[in-house]
Amino acid sequence: MDQLTALDSGDTAAAPTELGTVRRLLLALLPVLGALGAYATIDLSPATFPNLYRLVVVLAVVPAFLLLIRPRTAAVVVPRLFLWLAVTWALWLPVSLFWTVDADAGLRKIGSISYAFAAGLCVLAFSGGSRAGVATLRLGWTVAFLVTGAIAVWELQSGQHLSDGASFGPDATLVASTFYNPNNYAGFLLTCLPFLVWGGVAARSILIRVLHAGLVVLWIVLIVATQSRTGFLGALVLGPVAVWWFGRAASLRQRPVAVPVLVLGLVAWIGLSLAAASEPGQRVLGQFTSPFEENDSLRASDQMRVNLTLLGWRLFVGSGLLGRGAGSYELLAGQWQEADLGGTTMAHNSFAEIAAEFGLPALLPLVAVIVVLMHVTLRRKATAAHRAEAFDLRMATGLGLAGFAASGLAASSILASPWWWMLVGQASAQAWLLYRMCPPRGDGPTGRRPAGSPWARGDDPVTGPRSLLVGARRG
After folding, report:
1. What gap in Å lies between CA 405 and CA 238, rounded to an integer?
2. What does the pLDDT average to over 62-74?
3. Which long-range contacts (CB under 8 A, 24 or more apart) does 132-135 make?
4. Which of 189, 198, 185, 184 is closest to 139 using CA atoms?
5. Looking at the predicted structure, is the pLDDT value of residue 282 above 60?
6. Using CA atoms, how far apart are residues 362 and 355, in angstroms rounded to an integer?
7. What pLDDT is attached to residue 207?
8. Residue partners of 118: CB distance under 8 A and separation at least 6
9. Of 168, 173, 176, 212, which Cα lies nearest the Cα of 192?
């Protein structure tokens, strides 16, 4: 009983029950199927029926909704707010069809968004804000990275792509995996980094930590291969933060830091050296600076993005802040003559697209969810027994939300992408666990550690002392 009290110090709900096999399987599969999107079929063909992602969410979304409306769950701020977001969107998006430019196009867009949004609802509900649920989701994101990364490596080696109409512009050597557009793939890769780092941090085996280090090296190669400036800049910002996370987490667990960092550097050097000896590797390394080379095409692309966002703002304000209706942005962009859009009609800014089509009734609940997630992440104070685990949750949630924002601002159109909404559900599940784990500020620490933590190690400072190793420090 004391253990449950310590765990639920910040939550009025009882501790969640153990996850069943079906729920664990769903949590592990959803990130993979969501990343595959239209290619979540037997033969990676969008024309094949059925699409496994859509089949799973159709079967799972109603049980997920019922889990979230349970009294003990709906009383907690994080799932309650996400449920408010889901209900608001479910009611408001169809209403916007009454004034949209093309009701048929709007209906198709609402259907695509609904299938995608269901992923976030499912991962939050089935995780239940539990350690096991969050850990299973982390594994699912890692597998999603491996599956889509294998397709990207195939693109590099073969020069082929899953879609003949993929958006590569004049350079067909880029990679987009299952995301059609290299910028979309770069956004997905940015959201994968926290889970790759977290998997290495939380692993009990040195071998598993080394394997995750290798995955991070592969992540760098794939980011470069997309030639996305958003991916490059995101890597430059998130990379040092991830290294600091690794060092701080090791310090909290009193693990050696210097030797693993040297091993990681050696693995990266050997891997890049071997890659440079191959033709695809030489092509990737040759692309390293190309996204930042000034040219007319780059300047035109930047101006086009500014004009698209400006159009979204004008549609938002001109609609009385209620939006012009589902599916209206692309149709109105095709008619706009006030600025050169280069024939582009997708918004390339998902937040401007939401504002332009659905207005404040859809935008405000989403912003509220993000603000509350950041508040819980930054303001909940962990007890000594949970400090290392809470730090990992904060870092994963913060970096995940940064990836969510970056991909939303850079991708051509991401509202119908399941993994984007799944990221919000994942961050909500992590914040829910953090909320349950940490008492509100001002409450006294319990000083107890919940049993059965998958992070528990015999050498953790929360379970017992150990000798100081290379690069580690006490406290």
Report:
1. 13
2. 91
3. 132/18, 132/19, 132/24, 132/454, 133/16, 133/19, 133/23, 133/27, 133/429, 134/393, 134/429, 134/430, 134/433, 135/202, 135/454
4. 198
5. no
6. 8
7. 83
8. 57, 60, 61, 64, 418, 421
9. 212
